[in-house]
Design goal:
The chain is built from 15 helices and ten strands. The chain has a three-stranded parallel beta sheet, with helices on both faces. A three-stranded antiparallel beta sheet has the order 6-7-8. Helix 6 crosses helix 7. The longest helix has 19 residues.
Length: about 350
Amino acid sequence: MVEPLAGSPIRRRGPFREDVPDIEGGAAHLHLNRRKGSIRLDIGGSAGRRLLEGMLSEADVFVADVPLQRWDGVGIDPDGVGVRHPGLQVCTITPYGREGPKSNWLGSELTLYAAGGYLRIGGEPDREPVKAWGEQGHLQAGLQAALGIVSAMYADRGGQQVDTAIFEAVAFLLGGGYQHAWFSDREPMRNGARLVGFGPGHLYPSTIRPCLDGWVHAHCNNRYPEAMAVLFDEPRLAEPDLLASLMGRADEVDELMAPMLMRTRRREVVKQAQELRIPFTEVLAPSEVMADADGHHGSRDFWQSTPHPRGGEYRAPGPAVRFGRTAWAEGVAPRLGHDNESLGSREERVRWRRAGVA
């Protein structure tokens, strides 16, 4: 990461240990920046830009998440970078992309989440929309950018421009909603905890329902929806007229499930459902996922004990993807400017620090 002198904004996002702000210890930084390096550099000045150009001459990929309006001011116009470094893959991540009538628009996580269509479907139908937790729009854009970069490199063609628009990454995530709008000529609307955009003949349940000690995600067996009658000891759930219009009679289905759910603990509900090959699962809090009561994460060595920059350790998520022939490489997030020592000679580094360049 080439970071400004004050550090990347992600370093100032919590939570922090004991709620004390710390640019080295924010949870978002510790998680998302693992195994990266950090060079602290003022690219607003000519000296800083020269140092950046030197690094680009040795790089394979350049990712710029600077807003389009600031490109000229910091000298990182992607077209110019591509001309100066013709073999470099150049990826930009901006709110609305590099081209189009909205390319100069600003955007926040909330407005981009709304512009991509996803805010329309979250929440109860008679209330205001509800955004998903965190910064899903930006995270999805990061995933799409990574996929674009890997694709460009495997194409064996240097010098490609990978243009990632955050609001389009959100729209891509909503692909099923657009398909329903197109094929059924029906606008997907907020539907609470139920599936969005499906007609009355679609299978149900796929929803979150309360039980004795919490919540379960209830989902019927799509091949054998009548198995719900066995799970809930409710013959009505297997009657043809109900099976023909499960989504259309979702309220009735919920009422038929409620008695058994409200007298049964969620783990027992899930156990009984799984034995019948019905894909129920518990709705777990993050602390419960970390507690790993079943030992499933432990059996896969998912949680990693990772050194904290201020001493001690913290538990970090492990591999999101596992490869058969490539081991997961664990690492820590870098301290601000950790890799500045790799720049230039000792005398140059001293001069740059005095000048406030790096």
